[in-house]
Design a protein that fits this description.
Two copies of one chain form a homodimer. Chain A is mostly helical. Chain A has two domains: 83 residues, Winged helix-like DNA-binding domain superfamily/Winged helix DNA-binding domain (Arc Repressor Mutant, subunit A), CATH 1.10.10; 78 residues. The first copy, chain A, contains seven helices and two strands; from the N terminus they run αααββαααα. Chain A has a two-stranded antiparallel sheet. In chain A, a hairpin with an 8-residue loop joins strand 1 and strand 2. Chain A is elongated. The mean pLDDT of chain A is 91. Chains A and B meet through helix 1, helix 4, helix 5 and helix 7 of A and helix 1, helix 4, helix 5 and helix 7 of B. The structure holds a DNA duplex (28 and 28 nucleotides).
Chain lengths: 178, 178
Amino acid sequence: MSRRPQTELAVLGALSTGSMTGYEVRAAITEILGDFWHESFGQIYPALNALEQAGAIARSTPGRTSGSRFEITPAGTVLLRERLAEPHHATPPRNGLLLRLFFGTQLPPGRSRELLEAEIERAEVALARFAAIRADMDTEPPGAEHDYRALTLAYGEHHARAHLAWATEALRALPDRD
Amino acid sequence: MSRRPQTELAVLGALSTGSMTGYEVRAAITEILGDFWHESFGQIYPALNALEQAGAIARSTPGRTSGSRFEITPAGTVLLRERLAEPHHATPPRNGLLLRLFFGTQLPPGRSRELLEAEIERAEVALARFAAIRADMDTEPPGAEHDYRALTLAYGEHHARAHLAWATEALRALPDRD
DNA sequence: AACCTCATGTAACACGTTACATGATTAT
DNA sequence: ATAATCATGTAACGTGTTACATGAGGTT
C-alpha cells in the first residue's frame, strides 16, 4: 500500500483556488485548512517542483515583482480530482495527552489537573476562532462550495465542544489526590 | 526541539503493568491503548533493545518456553515518570477525510455521501466497543488507576458521539447534487 | 502435512520537521 | 538604515510503516 504524497494533494487543492507563490500556498493552507491540515516549507517546495515536472502546475514569472507564481493546469485539475477520489487512510493515532493521562497515577501530583486545564483553554480558544469564521462565512454567497466549507467548519465545532465537555467532566472526576 | 522517541514511553508504560515479551507488548498497546496510540513491531523491538541498553528494562529467559520476557527495572520506573512528566507535543493535523470534503465540489457525485456514511458506521462501531469496555470496567476495583482509565475511555466516547452527530448532520446538509 | 499463532528481527522506504542559508521587497 | 515580511530552498534528522525473512510450538 504505497501512500502517495498527500502534500501534493493539499498543494494542488490550494492552487485550484487561484495562482500563488509557494509562500502563499503555505499561508493559504495554514489559514484555511489549518485546523485539519499542516504543511511545512520543507514539504511544499519539493512538492511544487514535482508537480511542475509532472505538468500539473505551471510557473509564471509575470512582472518579476517577486518570486514565481504557480497556477494549476488542466492536467493538474484532472490529477486533483483523481487524487481526491482516492481512499484516505486514517493516520495511526498517537495522542500524547491521552497516553499521559492513561498512566496518570505515575504523574507528579497536580500535573493531570494542569493538563486538563490547558485542554479546556485550547478548546475555548478554538471555539472562539470557529465562531468568528462562521460569522464571516455567513456573508459568503451560497452554493456548493460554501456548503462544503461549512461542513468542515462544523467538524471543528463538534469536536471542540466535545473536547471541552470531556475535559471539564474529567477535571471533576479526577482522583482526590490530584 | 528534539522529540524524544515516544515509542519508548509507550513501551515502558506497557511494561509497568507487568512483564511481557515484545509480542505481548504490541498486543497490550493495541488492545488497551489502541484508540489513541499505535506501535508497530518495527518500532517496538528496537525500542526494547534501547531500553535494555539504558538499564530501564531487564530481559529474563526463565523456562525458555518461548521468547524472552522483559520487565521494568527501578531505573525504568524513574525514567517512565520523567518521560510522562515531559510536555507532550500535539502531532500536526493531517486529516485526509476533511481535506477531501473541503474540496468536495471536485469529488465524483455521490462520493462525499459515501465518505460520510462510512464515518457514521465507524463511529457506531467505536461506540459499541466503548460500551463493552465500560461495562467491563464497572466490575473493576475502584481507585486512582480505574479513574484514569475511565477518563481516557470517556475521551473516546465524547469524541465518537461528536463525530457521529457531525457526520449525520453533514449528510443532511450535503448539496443537492451530491 | 498444513496451518495458525507466537515470536523476533531487518531493510527499504515514506513522510515530515527543524535548522540553516540566502536574498529581495516593503514599511518605519 | 533598519527591521519586518516575503520568498525559496537544502540538509540532517527523527519517526514510523511495510514487506520480508525466519523459526518455534501447538492444532486440525
